[in-house]
Amino acid sequence: MQRLAFVDLETTGATASLDSITEIGIILVDEHGVEEWSSLVNPETRISGFIESLTGISNEMVAEAPRFCDLASRVYKMLEGRIFVAHNARFDYAFLKQSFLREGIDFSAKTLCTVKLSRRLYPGYPKHNLDTLIERHGLKVTGRHRALADAQLIHQFWEKIQATIPQESIQSAVKALLGRPSTPTHIDLTMIDGLPESPGVYLFYGENELPLYVGKSVNIRQRVMSHFTADVTSAKEMSLSQQVRRIEHIRTGGEIGALLKEAALVKKLQPTHNRQLRRNNELCSIQIKEASEGLQANVAYANELDFATTSNLYGLFKTKREALKALTKIAEEHSLCKAIIGLEKVKAGSPCFGRQLKKCRGACIGDEARLAHDARLLTGLFKLKIRTWPFDGPAYLQEGEEMLLIENWAYLGSARSEADIWKLMDGRDACFDKDTYRILLATSGRLQPLPLSGVS
What we know:
By secondary structure, the chain is of the alpha+beta class. The chain folds into four domains: 4-179, Nucleotidyltransferase, domain 5, CATH 3.30.420; 189-269, 3-Layer(aba) Sandwich (GIY-YIG endonuclease); 284-384, no CATH class; 395-449, no CATH class. It contains 17 helices and 15 strands. The protein has helices at residues 49-55, 59-62, 68-79, 89-102, 114-121, 130-137, 147-164, 167-179, 189-193, 220-230, 235-243, 255-269, 320-333, 353-356, 370-381, 418-426, 434-441; strands at 4-11, 21-30, 33-40, 83-86, 111-113, 200-205, 211-217, 246-251, 284-291, 294-301, 313-317, 395-399, 402-407, 410-415, 448-449. Helix 4 links the parallel strand 4 and strand 5.
């Protein structure tokens, strides 16, 4: 006989990594029979008015209750080695796992979700929430939104299916669910089954047509599943997985294609959960120009210059403030004159503030040759130098059966035929892109000029 633990929790909120348990209800079922246990839990934080009204558990009720740390050992012993059965099991499992982790206990168990079990056994019904199961199966209600009462309802549902459905069908459904990776109850498993184990990008959608998140991987299916595995320990992943209703994917020829496609889609679609790859219109760089008295530094913007073809640019920065901060650091590390490089204003022939503190070698007042000063400036900037586009026109990178088309460090798209190439060429609007630049820089040796005559 399988050793089962029917579990329900009440909590202060919906996020396992931030909120706390207020009540635990457990029903143990094994060869010895049925044993029930429950306890209120002091969450060590206030319970909101909304949660109080929903569960009936008040701050006064839990004030003298044991904390989870006081119950952890007992709860762990009850659950150890049993199948963890709950309605929307990921929620309860995530809270217990997080609570155990806070006590230094690594809890893990096979989980059986009765929402998913109901869907498998009763595929003709559209709803499988607990209130629906109560009505459908005539379950006896002793309370709702209290831990032991809801655990009893789950146990009753289990007993109902034992009495009305052949054991072979139940065991087959349980075996299938225990053998599958855990996914949120609202995600259709056919979406997961349709994901390839190959490189590409995936898109998470919520209730509408605006994507929540765009990601990439060399194994799309594995990476998507990792989001749903991590959500029991990550508030960010939990928030994302709770919103996902649809998953789409685009295959690529390899990892570089996936990286480029992800960066392009994030800029185009602006998903709410992607932040780092979003377009930044204030992209700027430190530009070095030659003047009669020596080198001059100023901040140049990507909307004013073509960064792909302009020489003597150093660093890619989101804001002017970031660029000036980097230039200041270089000045301090290489004893540069901040007045000469434009970080400080002084009268001609007057010493800069750094000279007064002996941090400048005196180029501002002629105590140091300007040539020596400028050589140190270039040395300090060397690692930040932006490489100009090395071709006269478009180039490509072959990855699998795909040609990745690039021009001026901008990703034009992927092609599998000459017709695809010409289509991309006709509609191209290539502008320097910092993410594409960074992705391709490490593999720039693989770039080849596009061998098509007449491309302009």
